[in-house]
Structure formats: structure tokens, C-alpha cells
Amino acid sequence: MSEIARVYASSLVEFGQEKQILPDLEEEMKFLADLVSEDRDLYLFLMTPGIPKENKRAFVEKVFSGKLSTYMINFLKVLIDNDRQTLIPDIYQAMIDAIDVLSNRQRVQVTSAFQMDEAIKQMLTARLKEVIKKDVILQERVNPEILGGIIIKIGDTVIDGSIIKDLKNIRHSLLQSKVRSEAAYED
After folding, report:
1. pLDDT digits over 43-93, tens only?
2. Which SS3 state, helix, strand or coil, does residue 11 take?
3. Looking at 19-169, which runs of residues are DSSP E strands?
């Protein structure tokens, strides 16, 4: 993520706090980031350098009036004026990171082989909150390839309690012991 995206996100967060509309701005920025990521035509329109900025600004005004706050529409126009509209997804991510720090919350990615039921999610969330001393936002992913157990990712830290990891460790140990035993019996 670029430093430029962080600067825009920081400004947006600061403005949202000042006006007491930060949750609304967060929701609108998520909507925009998702829209730009999913709608190829919109992405191409906003990113094509040959389309005049005035046309892009008019388009934003026409399409998003009544759907987004005037603050967010004006923010989009500023991005267009500065040729920074390509940073919308990065700005959203930087915004989320900044809000997480302000709100003392931590996003935790949990990967399991199957969908966890609510009781397990609540128990895991409570335990993680206890350990990391922050509110936990659990982001669940299902990956049948891990066979069982869970993989927990907190920031840059990964706790791998999957069965597939255990099987790989056993395989590695067996291969190492076979190599050592063969070396011991050689003349």
C-alpha cells in the first residue's frame, strides 16, 4: 500500500472524526472500493487517462448524487483532480487500518476446513480478545485442503494448527529419519 493512499485515508479519517460521520464514510468508501474492483467498465472509465477530468467529475456527480454523501462525492472529485482514483481500494484499506487502530480492534483471519458454527466463533473471538487485548473482528475463510484444525492470522503472525501442516511435519520427520538411518548402515 502506498504512502499516498495512507495520506488520503488519514485525511478522510480525520475529517470523519471531526464531523462525527466516520462510520458513514467508512461504509461509503467500502462501497466505492468494492464497486471499482467489481465493475470493469467503471474502473476503465475512471482510470483511462484519455477521458477529460471534467467528464469524470460530471459522471461522478450524476451517478453518485443521492447515493453517496456530498463529502464522498467531493472526495472522489479531489482524487480525479489529482489523478489518484486508481488508489480507491488502497485508500479504503488504509482507512480501515487507521480506524482499527483508533477503535482498538484487530482483524483476525481464521481458516478452517469447514464452516464454523456460531458457538465456536464466539468462543474463539472471546479467547482471542483476551489474548490480544483488542476487540476482534473475525474474518472466516473455508479451505477444505487443510483437512482439519484451523489457521489463525493476526497481522503478520500466523498460528498454523491445521492437520495438513501436521501431516507435512510427520512426512518431513520420516524422510529425515530414513535418510539418517540409511547413512548409518552404509559401509
Report:
1. 999 889 899 999 999 999 999 999 999 999 999 999 999 999 989 999 999
2. helix
3. 105-112, 135-142, 149-154, 157-162
Burial class (CB in 10 A: 0-12, 13-18, 19+), 9: buried
Q: Hey, where are the domains in the chain?
A: 3-100, 104-182
What CATH fold (topology level) applies to the domain 3-100? Answer: Peroxidase; domain 1 (1.10.520)
Is beta strand 105-112 parallel, antiparallel or unpaired with respect to 149-154? Answer: antiparallel
For residue 85, the Cα-to-chain-centroid distance in whole angstroms is 19
Would you state the cell numbers that stand for residue 11, as one nine-digit string?
485525511
- Cell 495512507: give the residue: 6
Q: What's the whole-model pTM score? A: 0.72
Indicate whether 106 pLDDT > 70.
yes
Q: What percent of the chain has pLDDT over 70?
A: 94
Cell numbers 472522489: residue: 76
